[in-house]
Amino acid sequence: MNFSPETYLWFKSFHIIGVVVWFAGLFYLVRLFIYHVEVQTQKEEIREVFNKQYTLMEKRLANIITTPGMVLAVIMATGLLYMQPSYLSQAWMQVKLLFVLFLLIYHFYCYRIMNQLTNNQFNFSGQQLRALNELPTLLLVVVVMLVVFKNQFPTSAASWLIFGLILFMAASIQFYAKWRRNKKQLT
Ligand code: HEM
Fold first, then answer.
1. So which cofactors does this thing need (predicted)?
2. Residue 181 lies in a domain
3. Is 50 left (phi over 0), alpha (psi -120 to 50) or beta?
4. Which label site among 14, 24, 133, 158 has the fewest CB atoms less than 10 Å from its CB?
């Protein structure tokens, strides 16, 4: 099949749109899990209402936003690779595919947690789910950098310093949020 060069740009645009939708869904889904788990400290009648509502919101988000975003991103990526098969033999793409595999495992793991919550099985604390929610952020940073820098992936000391600063800022925000939560519980 012969595609025009413009088709590649269409594939790329919708690949990026799919990725944005996919990540929005993944981030919000685990947020909902956190609220769902933390409402278990409430009285039975409150818990019952919230469990029903969170289960509904999680299912809708996962099936109407998160998974369709993932499917769109993957189908468009297949189109990109079909038009540019030489990328498959390049190191940056192979590493990218490895990280995308981790992301897919994360995606299906979220479904597993969602089904456990639906069945009132609470295997994780809110704190553990907050930590889990950091994983896609890391995958996002690495994958976007791989696709932008390709084989010139930055490895200099200055680049590591910038990367370290970003991690430090993210950790500080998390600690600040935790400190505020603890303070709220004490008052
Ligand atoms: C199914 C797995 C995936 C494959 C096979 C794939 C493949 C590709 C290909 C071939 C391109 C075009 C590169 C170019 O023309 O320069 C691309 C672009 C891009 N991909 Fe993916 N991708 C996948 C998943 C992802 C994921 C999960 C993310 C985000 C975390 C992502 C983010 C991007 C971005 C931001 C671009 C645009 C880069 C640019 O134009 O500079 N991709 N992808």
1. heme b
2. no
3. alpha
4. 158
